[in-house]
Amino acid sequence: MSAIIPVITIDGPTASGKGTVAQRVASALGWGVLDSGALYRLTALAVQQQAIDPDNESAVANVAATLDVQFRLGQILLGGQEVSELIRQEHVGNLASRLAPNPKLRAALLSRQRAFRLAPGLVADGRDMGTIVFPDAQVKIFLIADVQARAQRRAKQLIEKGISANLEDLLADMRVRDARDTQRSVAPLIAAKDAHVVDSSTLTIDQTVQSILDLWSRILSTPPSLGV
Ligand code: C5P
User: Fold this and answer.
1) Given 3.30.565.10, 3.40.50.150, 3.40.50.300, 2.30.42.10, which CATH number is that of 2-220?
2) Nearest atom, ligand 1, residue 101 CA
3) Angstrom distance (rounded) from CA 204 to CA 197
4) pTM of this prediction?
5) Ligand 1 centre and the CA of 218: distance in Å?
6) Fewer CB atoms inside 10 Å of the end CB: C or N, the chain?
7) Domain boundaries along the sequence of the chain
């Protein structure tokens, strides 16, 4: 009966704040979270570790299908190794974005992502959560933010983790990644027709989280329609 388990999808470009907002909305509701970007990053890391040719679509899809991954209270284990910091590195994100247009890879990750839809509900963040993975989601958010604001945010995150960051390089990488994510023919980064577009460059995290919770409350208080 997975169809009735509610899902809130939060799609948007890199560093738009999706991850933080998704975590906060999920904890307010007591729901689970799917960070779908982590699955693409884990695939990229495994491709790198196994020295697979990134252009070999079938081999990359096979890596994704056989990923030995466990998500445990803030930890991400790949083949038993804790990799949650490693997969956040820019070179892993860039490789993930390069691999992401591969339709075989996306197909291999589809059922893995849908398996996160467990009671009492799921907040899923990514690029195609509202369009492809959970098209029947009850609330769909498309979270955008100015590229300068996003690059500054990412630089701050990296510096806080003791990783050196150059704003100009980050901006350039982000523009390349945005272009690749939006222009690819398979599951491009695009707002679902029924998505609410939220601009996080003009809102605080608290305001963004609250606006999503308000949308969900509104759905809960709307009587169900009498079918199609
Ligand atoms: O969201 P994050 O930056 O961690 O994602 C890394 C890359 O994985 C993105 O740049 C994007 O190319 C890809 N991705 C995707 N579809 C998703 C989530 C991430 O194509 N649902």
Assistant:
1) 3.40.50.300
2) 20
3) 15
4) 0.90
5) 29
6) C
7) 2-220
